[in-house]
Design a protein that fits this description.
CATH superfamily of the largest domain: Thiamin diphosphate (ThDP)-binding fold, Pyr/PP domains
Helix content: 40-55%
CATH topology of the largest domain: Rossmann fold
Strand order of the largest sheet: 1-2-3-7-6
Radius of gyration: 22 Å
Order of helices and strands: HHEHHHHEHEEEHEHEHHHHH
Bound molecules: thiamine diphosphate
Number of strands: 7
Strand content: 5-15%
Distance between the termini: 75 Å
Oligomer: single chain
CATH architecture of the largest domain: 3-Layer(aba) Sandwich
Structural class: alpha/beta
Number of domains: 2
Number of helices: 14
Shape: globular
Amino acid sequence: MTAPAETLLPRDEPVRLIDPSGTLRDDAEYPTPDVADLLAAHAALVTGRRINEQCFALVRQGRLAVYPSSHGQEACQVAAALALADGDWMFPTYRDSVSVITRGVSPAEALVLLRGDWHGGYDPHEYRVAPQATPLATQLLHAVGRAHAATLQGEDMVVLAMCGDGATSEGDFHEALNFAAVFHLPVVFFVQNNEFAISVPLSRQTAAPSLAHKAIGYGMPGERVDGNDVAAVLAVLRSAVSRARDGGGPTLVEAHTYRMLAHTNADDDTRYRERSEVAAWVERDPLLRSRAYLREVGALDDVTEERFTADAERVAAALRDAMNAEVEPDPEDLFRFVYAERPQHLQRQWMGLQDEIRRDTEGVE
Ligand SMILES: Cc1ncc(C[n+]2csc(CCOP(=O)(O)OP(=O)(O)O)c2C)c(N)n1
């Protein structure tokens, strides 16, 4: 059955529940999450920000090779994880470490990959979090495949497929959305539109009225949400997740947010954007807004804030300790997990490497 076209279009203005001054505006379609949920979300925001700051410092200390920070995007990061049930799956990108951690993966496990370890750091099946994908939009196809498998096997599961605005220009994005819509799969596509794909602005990425408007072309609903309003992102994602769970098919959600720092430590964002633009977004910081609302309704006092800050500090300290530990990699790991049975050419290479290591330790020229 085809849905009437107008039900698939996003609103003209992104959904917003809490305005930048912290005032709540009720929305007829998206109920505001209750205060307890928003308090838990705020604690996760404080921890998420602290993790972003810690990782930025760890890169400078040479302990992480690279870190694509979600500083400024924490409302999206936190809401993505909190909108899911335990049995659901998340398919994140390289920028989504805070989502992965909010979902339950320990910060040390989530970040060893960026330290340069050969493995992804966590067991995807244990947390139902796919490996963080660097090749843009590839994870969307994996997500759709997982949802298709779940449907065929009668599993009760929703899949959250995450990507950035730049990734929407990839062919994989279009194939994933089309397949999900045609097969009516329980997928929520969550695009964090942070205005830039490295130095390429959104205006060079699409001529559509918004990224959420693309949904109608595939026959699924699209929605836009203020990505710096954690209450709104949580409400909109919950609604999409619940529609998917109830057999209503996929949704495309676009969150309007901003990457407040450079793309990674390897990027110099002063070369392509004005400081005044960044400063305007810093004023729209998602943490300030959530804090203002919770203080306003009397749910957040000084003692609770201090507890959240102390909890975040403990997470950061544990992450620091883990990343500062000197690891002794076993060279055989390079060969160990490639094939179930090691082919002869790799076995020869491993023997050659052992020989080299022996000569090195014995000081043979
Ligand atoms: C298939 C592919 N092409 C190019 C790149 C190089 N690349 C890495 S990040 C990036 C920008 C992505 O921007 P966006 O999707 O908006 O996500 P953001 O980094 O802003 O979170 C590009 C082009 C890549 N990783 N994969």
